[in-house]
Amino acid sequence: MAILGVRGTGEFTTDFRPTNYRELYTFLEPNGDAPLSALIAMMTSESTDDPKYNNFRDELPDQVVTVNGAVADTSTGAVTLDANDDNQFIVAGTILVNATTGEVMHATADCTGTALTVTRNIGGTTHQIADNAELFIAGYAAKEGADTPTPISFDATLAYNYTQIFRTAFSVTGTLANTNLRTGPKEDESRVKALKLHMSDMERAFFFGTRHIANASSAEPTRYTGGLINSLTNVIDVTSDTAASTIMTEEEFDTKLIDDIFAYGSKEKIAFIGSTVAHHLNWFAKDRWSPQQVDGAYGINFTRYTTPAGDLLAYLHPMFRQLPGMKESMLILDMQDICYRYMQNRDTQLLKDRQGNGEDRRKHEFLTECGLELKQDRTHTYVKNWTLRKAA
């Protein structure tokens, strides 16, 4: 077709003049892919030859008992206790101290249930024992020439979890695999995205999964691995564990650090935090802490908060931005007490050519069978519903 006059770009449609695109593509994702999985990759891992794996937890008992019913200061040595396993650690000769009044007592018989028999007022003045008063064991005193005391012991507790099968598939048709795309080969792009989704699935299960097995007696049961949040017993719910609902003040947080968070385990712990909690920590830091950037610790960049009780290595978890309720949460982990367990020969792998016979496509998948093992429970803490640090 003949064209008269000067030619300009506006005369050409996209059939003749493809507009400019940035080659390949930009991929928007939260800052950081799967930081917990990255940490675990740097820490302890162990294979298992059974989808159910067990571990024993042992710890020294508190050796604290609680009084059931007030006892007058003029009363003889009969005291009733609340039912508690720690009662059995009281054998004849045990010294007990009233945590409130300081009265020292000496057990004259073994405590086999809730009945405690003591000699009261050892070297001091007898006080009334209040209902729900706490008595703690403070050693043992034997008379000269006495026989050996009643032996006592305690057993470890059994904990277990399951491996969960994670599968993420991706597929392209034969035609698409051979089509020239501006964003690059579609199969390569799909593989990268599938791996990111696969790791995200594992990360979420490690946080929120519930230990369970469905159709356990069948040939093909479904197992669910227990996640951290649903497994931990050391939980601080700001709505019920502080003076004002949804508010935890700086003073209350200091108390929790000393009494709960750093009561057991390492003096340096990882804290995955939501955005609201990040604001709280930064606000506290302005007063007296000196937060420091820690580059490359465990392969991840953290902010270190040096507190009187121990060091928190805080990381603003991208998932906590996305999921409802997690902005006000903080999950504090002692990494030495977490182990990644995977079924032998079933750690993360790319399985190729999973398409059916005769299908004109390529289908591949990432497959992992794994779970987490908590070696200890009380060294970790989950803080939730921390909405405010002071009254609005």
Walkthrough of the structure:
The chain has two domains: 23-58 and 163-392; 64-140. The chain has 392 residues and is α+β, with helices and mostly antiparallel strands. The model is unreliable at 21-31 (pLDDT under 50). The radius of gyration is 31 Å and the shape is elongated. It is built from eight helices and 22 strands. Helix content is 19%, strand content 30%.
Write a short abstract of this structure.
Strands 13-22-18-14-17-16-15 form a 7-stranded mixed beta sheet. Strands 3-8-5-6-7-4 form a 6-stranded antiparallel beta sheet, with no helix packed on it. The chain is 19% helix and 30% strand.
SSE blueprint and pairings:
Blueprint: H1 35-42, E1 45-48, E2 52-57, E3 64-66, E4 78-80, E5 94-98, E6 104-107, E7 115-119, E8 134-140, E9 157-162, E10 164-173, H2 174-177, H3 186-208, E11 212-214, E12 222-224, H4 228-231, E13 235-237, H5 238-241, H6 250-261, E14 268-273, H7 275-287, E15 292-297, E16 300-306, E17 311-316, H8 318-322, E18 330-333, E19 338-343, E20 349-351, E21 361-374, E22 381-384
Parallel strand pairs: 1-19, 13-22, 14-17
Antiparallel strand pairs: 2-9, 3-8, 4-7, 5-6, 5-8, 6-7, 10-21, 11-12, 14-18, 15-16, 16-17, 18-22, 19-21, 20-21
